[in-house]
Every structure is written in structure tokens, then in C-alpha cells.
Fold this sequence. Notes:
Layout: H1 2-42, H2 46-70, E1 75-79, H3 81-86, E2 90-94, H4 101-107, E3 113-116, H5 127-133, E4 136-137, H6 141-153, E5 157-160, H7 178-186, E6 190-197, E7 217-226, H8 239-260, E8 269-270
Parallel strand pairs: 1-7, 2-5, 2-6, 3-4, 3-5
Antiparallel strand pairs: 1-8, 6-7
Amino acid sequence: MSTLFSRLNRLWRAAMTGVCFALFGLGGLMLSLIWFNLLLIVVRNKARRRRLARRSISASFRLFLTVVRTVGVLDYQITGADRLRQERGCLVVANHPSLIDYVMLASIMPETDCLVKSALLHNPFVSGVIRAADYLINDQADALLPASRQRLQQGDTILIFPEGTRSVPGEKMTLQRGAANIAVRCGSDLRVVVIRCTEHMLGKQSKWYDAPPTKPVFTIAVGERVPLNQFYNANSQEPALAARQLNRHLLLKLQTNSTNGIGLNDASASS
């Protein structure tokens, strides 16, 4: 009986994953075609319009995650969520095991910026969301550092996944140096977030319909804010050297915690 129940549960989760994907795509289209265009007409101030768009995205993600949890596709727990809600003028860097990582983090960061791949601008389900939220695009090299500096100075948080793509289980983690370079050259502190999951789901080499044997449980641990001055002194160091040292620190922090399941500091659980 237990084997039959497990099989039925797995089939249910696979079916509901498909339903939730459809819901996510439909929600992105509705936001882009209706709500964001309405904001464009009604709200003339660009900064206020961008803020409302980002808050709308965050609220939509919270609703989506409520549905996903309710139908049993997955569960999640966020340790230190209040730290991210209250964060200002800081880079937030996280590992990237799953397609849903950004959704979970943005759901508790109501006005966060994000560094995204330019290829996503050609995705009809999310391109309107990216443009309305005015996210930073990773291939705009000349404009990226000045734009990042301006946004950090005005109190924005910028969410970055420094691996550049989703992790591959069993393979050595590598980080691109973009997050470290932005931190050093823009004078920004960082906050490290480690994401773990009990099952491999929506990863680099998995299909959306590959439901794992048991319901996945995501755990997100939000670490303490890391002051940049621990790694960089403009009077005595070259920025490139400081960025390499900082990148090694981030790699060690993310790799050790995500692989060994060690929590980041002490924080109360919330979700």
C-alpha cells in the first residue's frame, strides 16, 4: 500500500508541477500585457513605476509559492527572511541549484533588483517582467558597473547568482567574477544566501516533469552581511586582486555550506 501511495503521490506532483508551470507562464503574460501596461499609462514617474512593478512581482511570487506548497509540489523554509526584507544598498549572492531559486528569494525581497541573462529578454513569458522591473542585463558591459553603482547608492539591493547558471549535482562549483567585481568597484557590502534542497528538482539536467521520489524541501539560509572592507582597501590594493580574493571567499562560503548542509550563522526561521 505504501508503494502504491508513493507512486500515486509522485504522479500527482508531476501533474501539479505542469499545472504550476502553466500558471507561472500565464501569470507572467497577464502581468506584462495588462498590469504593467496599466502602470505605464497611469504612473508617469519612472522610479515609482519601477517600484510598483517590483512589488507586484514579489506579491505574485508569494501567491505562486502558496499554490505550489498547497498542492504538494514542494515545501520550503527560509531562515533569516527578515534580513532580506530589510536589506538596502547591498549585493545579495546565492548559489543556484534550481529554476525556482529566484522566485523564492524575490518573493521576500519586495523591491530587489536582479542581474539577469540577456537571453531572457527573448522569452515571451518573462521579458515583460524584466523590462517593467528594469532589471540589470548581464551583457551590457559598459553600462553595468555605472548602473550598479547608481542603484546601490540609492539603496537598491541587487540579487546575483554568481555561478551564472544552475548548478550541476556532482560537479565542482565555479563562480564567475561578476559579483565580486561589482562589489569591489562599486564599494558594496555583500550578503550570502545558501539554498539547499532535499531532492534534485528543476536543476540544470532535469526536466520539469521529472518529479523526485519524495516531495522536495528547499531550505534557504540567509547569512550575515559581509563588509567589503574585510577584503578591499582602495589605498593599498588593486581592485582586480581584491575581486579575486573576494570571489574565492564567496566560492568557499557557498560551496561548503550548500554541499555539507551547514547553516549560515544564527537566524530565526520564517517563511
